[in-house]
Design brief:
- The complex is a heterodimer.
- By secondary structure, chain A is mainly beta.
- Chain A is built from no helices and 11 strands.
- Chain B has strands spanning about 5, 10-15, 20-25, 30-35, 45-50, 55, 65-70, 75-80, 85-95, 105, 110-114.
- In chain B, strands 2, 4, 5, 6, 9, 10 and 11 form a 7-stranded mixed beta sheet that branches.
- In chain B, strand 7 and strand 8 (about 75-80) form a beta hairpin.
- The N and C termini of chain B lie far apart (about 35 Å).
- The chains are: A mainly beta, B mainly beta.
- The interface between A and B is medium-sized, with 22 and 26 residues.
Chain lengths: ~110, ~110
């Protein structure tokens, strides 16, 4: 079982709607949690970085939340745009192995007009 | 000017061949990585180098050999390619491999072994 699990695996929404992606992790203790966006044929690009003491972090229409007690994080996308179509990956860095990213399974988001 | 550039972007080769993928960064970062993304889009670390020194070597077959001629380059050489090596390989860099900084990824090299 992967240390970072995401749901749903894929999601289709209409342009302008909001959506929330989920991430559950078992990495413990952890240093920080990140959300990345990966467009097709491109490398992942960082959206947010949260340490274990932070509950929420925003980047434009993207808002990430973190509950370190339940080991859950979510990424909320507001007023979705066609360009939001991509894979969203939750990434955790553990405290003991701070030099490697542990990637989640990703959520494939498609925004339709 | 691309911060992390990988070449080639696409590579199609036959089983048994030896091939190399190159990565160059102009960010002045100390740590460079190779990640492999499989058909299920799952990314997993292969190697990391800090200032030309190998730091991480995950359970990767020894047919894969990273080489860092200088701090700005980390190349990946693969011997005796197998069908299962088909994947997208990403190079990444960070200022310091202590987990506190952002990572910059290259745009990937799609390797197809036929």
């Amino acid at each position: 079982k992967n240390q970072v699990e995401q749901s749903p695996q894929s999601l289709i929404i209409l342009e302008g709607k909001n959506c929330t992606l989920q991430c559950n992790y078992t990495v413990s203790p952890f240093s920080n949690l990140r959300w990345y966006k990966q467009d097709t044929g491109r490398g992942p690009v960082s959206l947010t970085i949260m340490t274990f003491s932070e509950n929420t972090k925003s980047n434009g229409r993207y808002t990430a939340t973190l509950d370190a007690d339940t080991k859950q994080s979510s990424l909320h996308i507001t007023a979705s745009q066609l360009s939001d179509s991509a894979s969203y990956i939750c990434v955790v860095i553990g405290s003991y192995n701070t030099d490697k990213l542990i990637f989640g399974t990703g959520t494939r988001l498609q925004v339709f007009p | 000017d691309t911060a992390v550039s990988q070449t080639p972007k696409y590579l199609v080769t036959q089983m048994g061949n030896d091939k190399s993928i190159k990565c160059e960064q102009n960010l002045g970062h100390d740590t460079m990585y190779w990640y492999k993304q499989d058909s299920k889009k799952f990314l997993k670390i292969m190697f990391s180098y800090n200032n030309k020194e190998l730091i991480i070597n995950e359970t990767v077959p020894n047919r894969f050999s990273p080489k860092s001629p200088d701090k700005a380059h980390l190349n990946l050489h693969i011997n005796s390619l197998e069908l299962g090596d088909s994947a997208v390989y990403f190079c990444a860099t960070t200022e310091s491999g202590d987990g506190n900084y952002g990572y910059t990824f290259g745009s990937g090299t799609r390797l197809t072994v036929v």
